[in-house]
Amino acid sequence: MLRRSQLYVPANSEKMLRKSTIIPCDSVIIDLEDAVPLAEKRNARLEIKRRLRELDWGKKEVCVRINEMSSLAGFEDVVELSAEEKVSTLMIPKAESGVGALHRATSKMLIPIIESSRGFMNLESLVREEGVVAVTYGSGDLALSMGGTADSYSSNSYVRTMIVMTANAYGVDAVDNVFFDLNDLIGFRKEAAEARGLGYAGKQVIHPSQVDVANEVFSPTVEELSWAERVLQAYERASRAGRGAISLDGQLIDDVHHKLAKQILSRNEEIRARVQ
């Protein structure tokens, strides 16, 4: 499943729900938590159920960000939406422990959101829980739990590295957090590129204008594909001749580069299958 771009859509906005079907994001996150006032949550659930029966998101991953698992609203979200087949994945805000029980109860895939110091300290346990397919974090709530500032945590290298390293250790996707300045696509691209360099699979986005940039950044470039194809051909040719390392364009190429090339080409095939 591609998660280059995960677009948040307010659950109580019919207009945005309809628009999300044609926006080229990989995932749609229908948001029942922060985007919906407490008094509107019941109506938002009903809106989701109506639109799920009417709208078609094609190959997109359809997620719902429920309310906190410990809250009445979160319980009602699960009860109302667990039978909806179009919803494949539940996003769990302020996840700290015990999320696997939600998978066993609903059979939905899970994406915990790290938004507290306790959640961060339990990161390894969370990504190992049954049904977890990806993990992300919320810099604002995480900063609040730490008594810090959102700016300090939005691009904190330690937090970002620990999340992606732990996720990859257990075979789940790490998805970078949102970038709040909608007018700064240059800054968004920079942050997304940094995340890709660390090994993130994609980025959460809060506006359609960010989707194309995220998709581009988290896709192999023409130069990367050309390099990967040449490495694959040269390395496999050398392997048949009994050599384990070669020189290509003046650089040493060994098994690590061969595996990286295969990874780049495999991801490109996955993207092509997604957009066709």
What is this structure, in a nutshell?
By secondary structure, the chain is an alpha/beta fold. Helices cover 49% and strands 16% of the residues. The chain folds into 2 domains: 5-217, Phosphoenolpyruvate-binding domains (TIM Barrel, Alpha-Beta Barrel); 222-275.
Q: What overall geometry do the principal axes of the alpha carbons give?
A: globular
Distance between the termini: 15 Å
Strand order of the largest sheet: 1-2-3-4-5-6-7-8
CATH architecture field of the largest domain: Alpha-Beta Barrel
Counted beta strands: 10
- The CATH superfamily of the largest domain is identified as Phosphoenolpyruvate-binding domains
Compressed to H and E, one letter per element, the order equals EHEHEHEHEHHEHHHEHEHHEEH
- Overall mean pLDDT: 93
Structure, explained:
- This protein is of the alpha/beta class.
- It has 2 domains: 213 residues, TIM Barrel; 54 residues.
- The strands form 2 sheets. It has an 8-stranded parallel beta barrel with strand order 1-2-3-4-5-6-7-8, surrounded by 5 helices. Strands 9-10 form a two-stranded antiparallel sheet.
